[in-house]
Design goal:
- There is one protein chain.
- The chain has 493 residues and is an all-alpha fold.
- Helices cover 74% and strands 1% of the residues.
- It contains 20 helices and 2 strands.
- It has a two-stranded antiparallel ribbon.
- Helix 5 runs antiparallel to helix 6 and helix 9 crosses helix 13.
- The relative contact order is 0.09.
């Protein structure tokens, strides 16, 4: 078998590795107290690999390299580009917060974010079970360190330990499932696994058990019930600048490996894994929305909100294969991709707002801290309104169209009763989102409330973030068409 190696396909990853190592070395001699040069170099690195990815995408660069370990296709280009944007936005939002809390002492905040992104890129382009695991561990190790970056903060250290222990357990589930699938098919390459299963040459019993463990590991990374226990504690305990890194781009990478493993590799066994996803989806909608009602901590509320939104993503992923026919797959998976992209966009705005309102000695992470925001800053209050309305799935924000697209896929698949349940829990979810709006517009500010002061970069970026949520809600067709086309070409459906 000829060796298939094309380094050009992995150019963004190679460049990011070089940039990350160079920035790490530069930071060792950088004496700037706020690590501003490190911040600028990190954004420059993200800009360069963004340009490379866009050029590759426009020129139709695609294929497999490193003997099938690494795959580049339209889905990889789109999700990588979205990940770059998410990380860049996170670094801009979190710079002042990290500076005020002495998280920039050695520039590790930026370097760890870049290496976490490198792991996510490897996950997105994984064509082999080994590549999936390597990318996952590279991302996870960087995230563990980011969460524990404030070593003198007992709460952050506790959150990091919880995430580490439960993350190691989930990685074990995933690795055990992969080993059983390897034993059942004799292959680690995802394309070969699909071929063996399609030809009926796989051993059925270990394959089914492998799928169970595989789905459990993926559900942990997505933060879906019943593997959701880490999400609220880690979101609340982490420094908000690290929480945003955890809640943004890694969701895109987890979504990518879910598609690679279940759709590309195990699509012929969809009747085995789709019911599992639908059950987890309903449980995530129920527990996420019902538990969020009683939360007073805004970060914890957003954590339970994340669990419920992953329920919607799982609904779409569980509705693509019906009666042995993949007719609905492109629209269902395209809708799931659209939902994930718009959810990450909204998450960036929500945590970005917390970072903007926070100041030294004040975290601004309780709902009560938002009271009377309209009196202090009407524009930022309007952004909160747009964010919460979008998360609630109300028109004209993009969240409405995203949920509508998923519900259409669910109904088309014949799961009408599940769609009804999803709508009911969405209505319940609207209550706690509107509770935040009430605090912003109708409650009096607390006695220690201060005017909103933030850098021009933060304010401008947050404004663009809010505007995109509105614009994509009014004109969603372009992004939705791109998502559907991407799924069709990448997954061969």
């Amino acid at each position: 078998m000829p060796i298939q190696i094309d380094f050009a396909l992995a150019t963004p990853e190679i460049l990011l590795l070089i940039f990350g190592a160079a920035i790490l070395l530069f930071d060792a001699i950088n004496k700037h107290p706020e690590r501003k040069p490190t911040f600028i170099l990190s954004l420059l690195a993200l800009a360069v690999i963004s340009v490379v990815t866009i050029v590759q995408w426009q020129q139709g660069v695609a294929g497999r390299t490193f003997n099938g370990l690494f795959v580049v296709d339209s889905m990889a280009h789109l999700l990588k580009l979205a990940s770059y944007i998410a990380v860049a936005v996170t670094l801009v939002y979190g710079r002042l917060y990290a500076r005020d809390r002495e998280m920039l002492g050695g520039g590790e905040y930026y370097v760890l974010a870049l290496f976490a992104l490198l792991g996510q890129m490897v996950m997105i382009s994984a064509g082999n079970l080994i590549t999936v695991y390597l990318g996952l561990e590279l991302m996870s190790l960087a995230l563990y360190a980011l969460i524990a970056l404030r070593r003198d903060d007992a709460v952050a250290t506790e959150a990091a330990m919880k995430y580490f222990v439960l993350g190691a357990l989930a990685s074990g589930f995933l690795l055990y499932g992969m080993s059983m699938i390897y034993g059942a098919t004799g292959h680690l390459d995802i394309a070969m696994i699909s071929e063996v299963i399609g030809a009926g040459r796989a051993q059925n019993m270990p394959l089914v058990f492998g799928i169970v463990f595989l789905v459990a590991g993926l559900a942990f990374k997505l933060g879906a019930v019943p593997f959701h226990m880490w999400v609220p504690d880690v979101y609340q305990g982490s420094p908000t600048a690290a929480t945003l890194i955890l809640g943004g781009a890694p969701k895109l990478a987890a979504f990518a490996i879910t598609l690679r493993l279940l759709v590309e590799g195990l699509f012929d066994l969809a009747t085995d894994w789709q019911p599992m996803l639908l059950i987890m989806a309903v449980l995530s909608l129920a527990i996420g929305n019902l538990t969020a009602i009683v939360q007073t901590n805004f970060k914890r509320l957003l954590a339970y909100s994340s669990i419920s939104h992953m329920g919607f993503v799982l609904l779409a992923l569980g509705s693509g294969y019906v009666d042995g026919r993949p007719n609905l797959a492109v629209n269902a998976y395209g809708g799931a991709l659209f939902y994930m992209l718009t959810y990450v966009l909204t998450t960036l705005g929500s945590f970005g707002l917390i970072l903007l309102l926070a100041r030294q000695g004040f975290e601004a992470e309780n709902i009560a801290d938002l009271k009377g925001l309209n009196q202090r800053s009407p524009w930022h209050a309007a952004i909160v309104l747009m964010l919460m309305v979008s998360l609630a799935g109300l028109p004209p924000m993009v969240g409405f169209y995203a949920k509508l697209a998923v519900l259409q896929s669910v109904v088309s698949a014949g799961h009408t009763w599940i769609a009804v349940i999803a709508v009911v829990f969405s209505l319940i979810g609207a209550f706690y989102y509107l509770r935040v709006v009430k605090a912003v517009y109708f409650d009096e500010p607390s006695g220690d409330a201060m005017p909103v002061h933030a850098g021009i970069g933060q304010r401008s970026l947050l404004s663009v973030n809010g505007a995109l949520i509105l614009v994509l809600g009014i004109l969603p067709g372009g992004l939705m068409a791109l998502c559907i086309k991407t799924m069709g070409t990448s997954l061969g459906l």
